[in-house]
Write a structure and sequence with these properties.
Blueprint: E1 2-7, E2 9-11, E3 14-16, E4 47-50, H1 59-69, E5 78-81, H2 95-98, E6 103-110, E7 114-116, H3 117-136, H4 145-150, H5 155-177, E8 185-187, H6 188-209, H7 220-251, H8 275-291, H9 294-321, H10 323-326
Parallel strand pairs: 1-6
Antiparallel strand pairs: 1-4, 2-3, 5-6, 7-8
Family: Belongs to the steroid 5-alpha reductase family.
Organism: Corvus moneduloides
GO molecular function, one term: oxidoreductase activity, acting on the CH-CH group of donors
Length: about 325
């Protein structure tokens, strides 16, 4: 069986492809014929073959063979499609499942520099943890030292630091020990955008809360205490939901919608299909009430919007897979949404 790869050139945001083979078909088994240099222009330029690919081979095997011939195209950077405007195929797909003849034509697209999902989340969450601590210790390059020494730190400042660090430490530990990421990758630019969002907002939030002139919430101790309690409950709930989802994935049971257990924090599965997003939104709303600062409020507002979009998208997928179990549930907010 022969696998034929055709390059797709990108033009004004869409892909166009045309296949014109210019290589010899009498190749050694598994060997590439060298392609012409890849050029970006209106019509695609290159097509090359891997001869005698075993039918049981996967697309990942094809990518590795391609990488040996063209070192600049490492496997995670290559996206393969059956049609030039079609969806990207998973690495686990076998060549045999795609074959309609002895030659399989695949279109390849450069996905750009890629990073693994674990690296993505560790980088995204480590920044806010360290940045907040830098503001908490009140570096001389950030705040006036004379004013910092004279000012009294309200207990909510210390509590806010504890809660903020707890939130991101939980995310980091779950990334390492709870979540099971696929072997896929994401573009480096996505990590840069995510880091800019989280790191930038953390700097803004931490600057105000740790400022020597920061004023505590209007309703004093009760407001702080109740909000902190709600924050901790949401953090615990988020963790237990993630553990429940991970347990279902590890057990291989993907035919049933996750069900609540004896743990009260998982009972939210009875009302919504994405309780982890509910708890995440609740954490930031509680943190806003506890600190009573504008930057936190804006960040919480944006996070709620993002969580609702993710929940709506996942809810639609659940409806297709588990309609009888999900049809009466909301996506993120019980009864409302």
């Amino acid at each position: 069986m022969t696998t034929q790869l055709c390059s797709c050139a990108e033009e004004e945001g869409h892909l166009t492809a045309d296949c014109g083979c210019h290589t010899c078909t009498a190749c050694d088994p598994g060997q590439f014929t060298p392609p012409r240099p890849f050029k970006r222009r209106h019509t695609p330029t290159s097509c090359w073959k891997i001869a005698q690919v075993p039918p049981a081979s996967t697309l990942l095997d094809v990518k590795h063979k391609f990488h040996k011939a063209c070192p600049q195209w490492y496997p995670s950077r290559v996206g393969l499609q059956l049609e030039h405007n079609g969806p990207f195929l998973k690495d686990s797909v076998s060549i045999q499942s795609l074959a309609v003849s002895s030659i399989v034509t695949l279109y390849f697209t450069d996905l750009g520099q890629q990073v693994g999902w674990t690296t993505f989340f560790l980088t995204e969450y480590t920044g806010p943890l360290l940045i907040y601590l830098l503001f908490y210790i009140r570096l001389s390059s950030i705040y006036d030292q004379v004013e910092s020494r004279k000012s009294f730190r309200h207990p909510v400042v210390h509590l806010a630091c504890f809660c903020h660090c707890l939130h991101y430490i939980r995310h980091l530990l779950e990334t390492l020990f709870v979540h099971k990421f696929s072997e896929g990758h994401t573009p480096l630019k996505n990590m840069i955008k995510g880091c800019a969002f989280y790191w930038g907002f953390t700097s803004w939030i931490a600057y105000y809360i740790n400022h020597p002139r920061y004023t505590p919430p209007s309703f004093g101790h009760k407001q702080v205490s109740y909000a902190a309690l709600a924050f901790l409950m949401c953090e615990a709930g988020n963790h237990f939901i993630n553990v429940a989802l991970a347990h279902q994935t590890n057990s291989g049971n993907r035919t049933c919608f996750p069900s609540p257990t004896y743990n009260p924090f998982t009972w939210l599965f009875l009302l919504v299909s994405c309780p982890n997003y509910t708890y995440e939104a609740g954490s930031w709303i509680s943190f806003t009430v506890m600190t009573q600062t504008l930057p936190v409020g804006i960040f919480a507002f944006l996070m709620v919007i993002q969580m609702s979009l993710w929940a709506q998208k996942k809810h639609k997928l659940y409806l297709k897979r588990f309609y009888p179990e999900v049809r009466r549930k909301a996506a993120m907010i019980p009864i409302i949404f």
